[in-house]
Description:
The structure holds 2 protein chains of 2 kinds. By secondary structure, chain A is an alpha+beta fold. Chain A is built from 9 helices and 5 strands, in the order αααββααααββαβα. Chain A has helices at about 5-15, 20-30, 35-45, 85, 90-105, 120-135, 140-155, 170-185, 200-210, and strands at about 60-65, 75-80, 165, 165-170, 190-195. In chain A, strands 1-2-5 form a 3-stranded antiparallel sheet. In chain A, strands 3-4 form a two-stranded antiparallel ribbon. In chain A, β3 (about 165) and β4 form a beta hairpin. In chain A, α1 (about 5-15) crosses α2, α2 packs across α3 (about 35-45) and α6 crosses α7 (about 140-155). Chain B is built from 8 helices and 7 strands; from the N terminus they run ββαααββααααββαβ. The interface between A and B is large, with 45 and 42 residues.
Amino acid sequence: xxxxxxxxxxxxxxxxxxxxxxxxxxxxxxxxxxLERAKDWLRQKGIxxxxxxxxxxxxxxxxxxxxxxxxxxxxLVELNSESDFVARTEGFQHLAHEIALHIAAAxxxxxRRDDVPAELIEQKRADFRKQAAxxxxxxxxxxxxxxxxxxxxxxxxxxxxxxxxxxxKRTVKxxxxxxxxxxGENITLSRFARFRIGQSPEVESDAGNS
Amino acid sequence: xxxxxxxxxxxxxxxxxxxxxxxxxxxxxxxxxxxxxxxxxxxxxFEKAKDWLRLKGMxxxxxxxxxTAREGIIATxxxxxxxxxxLVEINSESDFVARNDEFRHLAHEIAVHIAAAxxxxxxREDVRQGVLDRERAIFEAQASEQKKPANVIExxxxxxxxxxxxxxxxxxxxxxxxxKRTVDxxxxxAIAKLGENITISRFARFKVGEAS
Lengths: 210, 212
């Protein structure tokens, strides 16, 4: 007996691949309900195109760029709203621009704390603990010092936790929260890229190989 | 009598009129001596001489492409409705070339290309092995359904993998404004012209609502 195919899986596969209901169902049956294998099956049969549509998330927003006048530094950022209406307002576009400027100046590495790799946090924790141990303090105090240093690290590297460059009494997250209450809809910062000439990992590894 | 006719070293070839040398220089930006040599090597055939210079330039570009390029500029493109944006780093060896108008124009063209052609990777090496294995498995399954001999199947699979690279890898993509050249060839031509290694080291392309 084959596994029962769930209607929402059929719908999800249709949305991703743009194929018909019956084909999507057959693909899922052939793949025993595995969505990824079903996608491959559809391509093997020549039903789905090679380039499936990128996964759409329900969000509106704006993409803003900033490039320094000497072209040695550039920033790309996506700021999202729930409605197209809010995304098109001047205030929203201005906020996106200000955030791009902030990223250029404050050089964050991550959008949010969750984006920091767990191994890096563990490594930082171990380093801070080693430093704190030199102070000969009781262990619960050492842990407090370690937590404090870790928070400083997040404030330095995580965009949402950085002090806003134009007013360092607020964090970037607080600036966004104010926009949320101003517009009455959720405002999120989904991603950014910040390039500085000669700082790409590729350039570094090229140098290592030569 | 024609204005000036420079005799060729071999004596047997046609003399190359100076105005032709000048026309070739103007058309290609190559030096006087190279233009003359190109016309001599192609018996004064203007179009062939252009190809000759291009090939020579390409050979030079090949030699330069191993040199490290760490100067450069960041080029950006943002669609007027702010739903799509591109950031790209293009490198040269010297600050001098990085400030050159032609270099800056190239950087802009590449940013626009990335916006239009949606590459996912910079170079072939950037495609993860898992992704490649999966593509290969699909192509093999497709090809084996056609009941062809194994060596033919392997050729079909190889061809499809090449199509995959042409679609997803920036350097392998046909240039959006002139699909007879790939982006890599465009860079090689710029190397030949500007006399320095030129590379793309990274890019980012954001479209609103598209998962990264």
